[in-house]
């Protein structure tokens, strides 16, 4: 038997009821190649599906011979398979690397997210329309809830739920509904075919069905079912919560327990985050990146220093025209926030909330996109993916932004400026220092975004080693126009004095 690297192997264990201990350790997989550390046994839990049948799933992460033993159910046997090269464009789970992300095979991953919280809870036709839209959109990550969501513009009941109910009307987390989970599996696979990561939100507060009120024991049972059933998909991320503070039935200790369970029991170490309402969750060892709700994008530099993790601005407002302040950004402002986030060294997530009488808003239910930001986000993604080298944002300079550092006479003024700043509270210092220019750079390029500023001329400081060519980018009109080449050092450039301009200098 042959299985491609990063694909899923599924084995039936039959219909015998399993003890909890054997359910949690239903099969063992072992890689037979080298190096030695890759020969560790990987224990895989079982999950219950249609008709009481139990199955195990496994995703091989190394090419070569694998052997396995079934420890539970009616099989009580073993076998082996050969893991062959991955399919084209299959790169495995996403990992963190420094301030950013890479696939398991080392290929760089630049997340360009979107939000469709409850799209899987919509009728089949609408789910199909959502996938068709995604096929032609620039997004490679989607935030989506496992539980249904209840809030304005999202009031419909789903056709099926993750669990069946007990006689008293409460949810039986030990009786999963295979119709729902089969549907979720299918949608994750459909997203994988489109090259899209499924950022699965495990809990959220916008609930009228009782999922937010599950006990801690019930919640852990549900979480372990997710691990057993879903973790062998290569394209999933775990998001513990949308707006964790608002899930009032849970404590910080509860969230920590979920994070520790994922860290210990997910064999593939998929990414783990937790999304905030007002305050970022305290740094924990299970966190792989920060999932942030905030319009204060300049603070990305501070969060990166505080957490030492990549920062995803997963909610900074939505392009639309609804009555809620979070849902009526202009198309330009949505695009601006993407550029601002990327040039701060973070990564951004889109959403769209245009009023419709049928209440099919992208941010909740999917369907079609009606805004103007998506093509401009595609333009940004194409640009960033073409840039050479390992790049990062410029760091904060503690000093007077108006000082001419090439003039020795200003050294004393610079010293006094620093002394003045040290007298202010730390939050004021942080706010000031976060206002550094919006620029990312490597040894091969400089990309400076001017945002809402409208200068008619600007000074640009380039390295003296080698020559550079510069182009002017209009982020809204999606144009790139050559300005000058063969330059170095401090140069002055004329600009059209309009917002949404960027300058790209590339080493010749």
Q: Outline the biggest β-sheet.
A: 8 strands, parallel
Strand order of the largest sheet: 18-17-16-13-12-22-20-19
**Percent range for helical residues?**
10-25%
Tally of helical segments: 11
User: Whole-number radius of gyration?
Assistant: 25 Å
Number of domains: 3
CATH second-level architecture of the largest domain? Alpha-Beta Barrel
Could you say which overall geometry the principal axes of the C-alpha atoms support? globular
Low-confidence stretches: none
CATH class of the largest domain: Alpha Beta
Q: Please name the fourth-level CATH homologous superfamily of the largest domain.
A: Glycosidases
* Structural class category: alpha/beta
**What is the beta-strand fraction?**
25-35%
* Count of beta strands: 31
CATH topology of the largest domain: TIM Barrel
Mean of residue pLDDT values: 93
Give structural attributes:
Immunoglobulin-like; eight-stranded parallel sheet; TIM Barrel; 508 residues; single chain; 31 strands; 3 domains; six-stranded antiparallel sheet; 24% helix; alpha/beta; 11 helices
What report would you give on this structure?
This protein is an alpha/beta fold. The chain folds into three domains: 2-84, Immunoglobulins (Immunoglobulin-like), CATH 2.60.40.10; 98-386, Alpha-Beta Barrel (TIM Barrel); 443-508, Immunoglobulin-like (Sandwich), CATH 2.60.40.3950. It has an eight-stranded parallel beta sheet with strand order 18-17-16-13-12-22-20-19. Helix 6 (300-307) links the parallel strand 19 (290-293) and strand 20. The longest helix has 16 residues, at 178-193. The chain is globular, with a radius of gyration of 25 Å. The relative contact order is 0.09.
């Amino acid at each position: 038997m042959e299985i491609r690297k990063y694909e899923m192997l599924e084995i039936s264990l039959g219909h015998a009821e399993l003890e909890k201990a054997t359910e949690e350790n239903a099969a063992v997989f072992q890689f037979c190649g080298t190096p030695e550390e890759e020969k560790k046994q990987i224990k895989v839990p079982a999950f219950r599906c249609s008709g009481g049948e139990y199955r195990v799933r496994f995703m091989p992460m190394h090419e070569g011979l694998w052997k396995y033993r079934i420890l539970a159910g009616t099989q009580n046997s073993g076998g082996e398979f050969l893991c062959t090269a991955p399919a084209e464009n299959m790169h495995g789970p996403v990992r963190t690397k420094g301030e950013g992300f890479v696939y398991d095979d080392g290929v760089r991953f630049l997340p360009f997210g979107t939000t469709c919280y409850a799209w899987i809870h919509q009728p089949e036709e609408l789910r199909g329309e959502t996938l068709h839209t995604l096929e032609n959109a620039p997004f490679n990550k989607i935030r989506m809830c496992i539980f249904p969501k209840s809030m304005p513009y999202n009031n419909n009941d789903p056709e099926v739920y993750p669990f069946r109910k007990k006689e008293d009307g409460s949810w039986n987390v030990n009786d999963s509904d295979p119709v729902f989970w089969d549907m979720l599996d299918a949608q994750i696979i459909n997203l994988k075919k489109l090259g899209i990561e499924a950022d699965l939100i495990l809990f959220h507060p916008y609930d009228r069905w009782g999922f937010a009120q599950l006990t801690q024991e019930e919640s852990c049972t549900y979480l372990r079912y997710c691990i057993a059933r879903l973790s062998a998909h290569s394209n999933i991320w775990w998001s513990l919560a949308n707006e964790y503070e608002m899930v009032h039935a849970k404590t910080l200790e509860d969230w920590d327990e979920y994070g520790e369970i994922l860290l210990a029991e997910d064999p593939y170490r998929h990414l783990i985050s937790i999304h905030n309402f007002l305050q970022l969750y305290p740094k924990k060892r299970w966190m792989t990146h920060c999932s942030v709700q905030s319009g204060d994008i300049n603070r990305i530099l501070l969060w990166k220093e505080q957490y030492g993790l990549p920062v995803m601005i997963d909610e900074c407002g939505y392009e639309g025209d609804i009555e809620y302040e979070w849902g009526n950004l202009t198309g330009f402002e949505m695009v601006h926030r993407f550029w601002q986030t990327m040039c701060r060294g973070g990564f951004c997530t889109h959403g769209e909330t245009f009023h419709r009488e049928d209440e099919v808003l992208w941010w909740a239910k999917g369907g079609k996109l009606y805004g103007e930001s998506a093509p401009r986000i595609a333009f940004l993604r194409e640009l960033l993916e073409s840039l050479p080298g390992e790049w990062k944002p410029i760091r904060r300079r503690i000093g007077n932004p108006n000082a001419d550092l090439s003039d020795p006479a200003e050294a004393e003024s610079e010293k006094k400026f620093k002394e003045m700043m040290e007298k202010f509270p730390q939050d004021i210092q942080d706010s000031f220092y976060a206002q550094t220019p919006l620029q990312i750079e490597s040894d091969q390029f400089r990309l400076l975004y001017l945002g809402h500023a409208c200068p008619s001329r600007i000074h640009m400081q380039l390295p003296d080693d080698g020559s550079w060519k510069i182009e002017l980018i209009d982020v809204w009109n999606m144009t790139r126009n050559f300005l000058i080449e063969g330059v170095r050092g401090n140069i002055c450039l004329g600009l059209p004095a309009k917002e949404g301009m960027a300058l790209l200098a590339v080493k010749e």
